[in-house]
Amino acid sequence: MNRVAIKMLVGDRAKYIGIIIGLTFASLLITQQAAIFIGLMTRTFGFITDTGLPDIWVMDPKVQFVDDIKPLQDTQLLRVRGVEGVLWAMPLYKGLLKARLDNGNFQTCNVIGLDDATLIGGPPELVAGKLADLRQSEAVIVDKVGAEGKLAKMPPPGPDGKPVPGAKPVPLRIGDTLELNDHRAVVVGICNVSRTFQSQPVIYTTYSRATTFAPRERKLLSFVLVKAAPGQNIQELCDRIHRTTGLAAYTSDQFKTITYQYFMKYTGIPINFGIAVTLGFLVGTIVAGQTFYNFTLDNLRHLGALKAMGASNWLLLRMILLQAMSVGLVGYGIGVGLASLFGLLTAKTELSFRLPWQLLAGTGVAVLFICILAAVLSIQKVMRLEPAIVFKG
Prior knowledge:
By secondary structure, this protein is α+β, with helices and mostly antiparallel strands. Helix content is about 50%, strand content about 15%. A six-stranded mixed beta barrel has the order 2-3-8-5-7-6. The longest helix has about 35 residues, at about 315-345. It is elongated.
């Protein structure tokens, strides 16, 4: 009977394709919009992910997310180092500074200052150069996307000395110079980092040089990065640092949670993407449900014939569920495949796109719900079906 159910389903090509299109559209929209949303939220704490070595981030208690810098006094570093259970504690500067480009424009950059001696907190991957080169005079390391995009140099002029139409900017390379807040900086390396939420270029340098680049303030220490001693309970150490210094101390995962919760609570991003995902779900439910219901009505005579030949309600119910699951599986596969292709094609653009397995599972559950709902609507008609309908004109 399963074969009969599938033949009945694909026999009406127009309705079969209509149901598939509805479920494909629902799967595509739910997966794509949710993946962009997850990608955006991931970018909010990308810097914490990139800085993987420390166990604990120590900061001012009023800090609400990773870019909400509330500087500390340098003496706080010594207080943290004195807490029992701290293996090491290093300073980190993080701030927004303006770089002057060779065309006269200014570009705001994320400047990261690493401890001069250890360079802890450096970029996760270097494309060119070495991290130790930061110890050279005026040295900085620039992220690849920024070097090829917003910080790229103007293309060389043509033979007549005028700009060449359509010429592409020249990416920054090792040896090129930048002007950061009226200070000269020399590029000694190119790195890969996670994209920032505001898509700003990221520049790494030493802590002392970053505080030289930054406008003069009484406090310049952004974070203290802490490594726990072997065998030390991380959460207990966080609590001890807080009790001893009065500063906030979070593990990396806790700091990520605080950061994305801030964006969830104080920005319109969840609402905007939530509306798009809900719209996709509703459109998919309406289109697929209505089409599947009409499909079942059109096949009532065939179902009635089966019932007249002795098929039970339970058997007809299984056939309808099989039909619903079949179109659901095909629509889900095509929709998720198209969403994955979209993510692949936009991987090197500014668009954020992250497709974890949990999202695929969530989309599968949503499509399953749509299919079950469509089947339930149709089943009610079949359960009340009289076999005598077959013999009516």
